[in-house]
């Protein structure tokens, strides 16, 4: 039986919740399908506990590196890249690299989806510095300790049409939707999508990065795809561990780029047949291309999304 007033979610200071009260709080939120609305964003209900607990308990260190993304923009890829860049001195032999036998989501854990999505508060003090974590939370909902720290944030976003098409395939594959393609599209356009509205998610980091370019690096899937080595260099510089000229001469940037590429990662046994947190790793690798939306969206759908994003991003400097 609920121990909470039904209007609780509107008045409550979530920080006062005990883990036993999370369930009641979450049930009091507006829902649709698999999603619950919390502070202006739609979260998969099954990860709401992680969202609340992370916001309440995570203590950022100045040396932390947080990789933030909306879903389906290439999170898996960027996890591989950041892990490989940061740990390159420990894994000079690429034939024995951890990415060969571990899915990137094991090497770079999600704070909201995994580490905090349980009753116990995780002990993250044992992680070696710099700690590398990821999450899908929008900037506005990050814990105060993150906003007040000097930790670095790498954010990735992607053309909304490809993001939507990728999301649709993924949700279907893992059984997290009962809606049709058209219904999912309509909801996406209304802002009702995992960790959406998508535009608000992107804008939350983009706007912040304009003021805090030393702390927040925003990357676009398409530019990473087009010029991976240029952006790998940019990422390493941003993280404070630029590639030396010796590393460049030895071809290390190209090696990391190849190691993390769709073709390479998707063909590894661990990513073809393994599972991570009960999810088949192969569901994270579909086509990995730019512009696949043309095969799925009608001209009317395409125009509708163009118009929405043109309006939402007007005057922000964001372009796709
Ligand atoms: P598609 O569905 O368009 O193929 P996320 O990791 O955030 O869940 O994003 C998944 C999307 O990134 C999928 O897009 C997937 O195929 C693509 N992807 C996965 N690994 C990639 C890689 N190494 N390089 C480029 N794209 C990759």
From TrEMBL:
The keyword Protein transport does not apply. It comes from the Eukaryota. Transmembrane segments: none annotated. Its EC number is 2.8.2.-. Residues 62-317 form the Sulfotransferase domain. GO terms for molecular function: sulfotransferase activity. InterPro entries: P-loop_NTPase (IPR027417), Sulfotransferase_dom (IPR000863). SUPFAM superfamilies: P-loop containing nucleoside triphosphate hydrolases. The keyword Aminoacyl-tRNA synthetase does not apply. Keywords: Transferase. PANTHER family: SULFOTRANSFERASE SULT (PTHR11783). Belongs to the sulfotransferase 1 family. This is Sulfotransferase. It comes from Carya illinoinensis.
């Amino acid at each position: 039986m609920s121990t909470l007033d039904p209007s609780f979610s509107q008045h409550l200071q979530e920080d006062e919740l005990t883990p036993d009260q999370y369930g009641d709080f979450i049930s009091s939120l507006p829902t649709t399908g698999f999603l619950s609305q919390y502070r202006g964003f739609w979260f998969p209900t099954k990860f709401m506990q992680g969202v609340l607990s992370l916001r309440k308990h995570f203590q950022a260190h100045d040396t932390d590196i947080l990789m933030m993304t909306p879903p389906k923009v290439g999170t898996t890829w960027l996890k591989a890249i950041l892990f490989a860049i940061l740990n390159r001195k420990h894994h000079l032999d690429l034939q024995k690299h951890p990415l060969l036998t571990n899915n990137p989501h094991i090497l770079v854990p999600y704070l909201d989806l995994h580490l905090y999505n349980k009753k116990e508060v995780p002990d993250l003090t044992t992680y070696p510095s710099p700690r590398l974590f990821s999450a899908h939370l929008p900037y506005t909902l990050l814990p105060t300790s993150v906003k007040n720290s000097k930790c670095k944030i790498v954010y990735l976003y992607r053309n909304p049409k490809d993001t939507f098409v990728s999301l649709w395939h993924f949700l279907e594959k893992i059984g997290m939707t009962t809606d049709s393609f058209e219904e999912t599209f309509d909801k996406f356009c209304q802002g009702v999508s995992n960790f959406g509205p998508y535009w608000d998610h992107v804008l939350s980091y983009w706007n912040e990065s304009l003021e805090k370019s030393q702390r927040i690096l925003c990357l676009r899937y398409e530019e990473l795809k087009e010029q991976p080595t240029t952006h790998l260099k940019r990422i390493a510089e941003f993280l404070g561990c630029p590639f030396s000229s010796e590393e460049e001469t030895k071809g290390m940037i190209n090696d990391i780029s190849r190691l993390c590429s769709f073709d390479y990662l998707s063909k590894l046994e661990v990513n073809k047949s393994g599972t991570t947190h009960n999810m088949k790793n192969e569901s994270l690798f579909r086509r990995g291309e730019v512009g696949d939306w043309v095969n799925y969206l009608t001209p009317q759908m395409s125009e509708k999304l163009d118009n929405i994003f043109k309006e939402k991003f007007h005057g922000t400097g964001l372009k796709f």
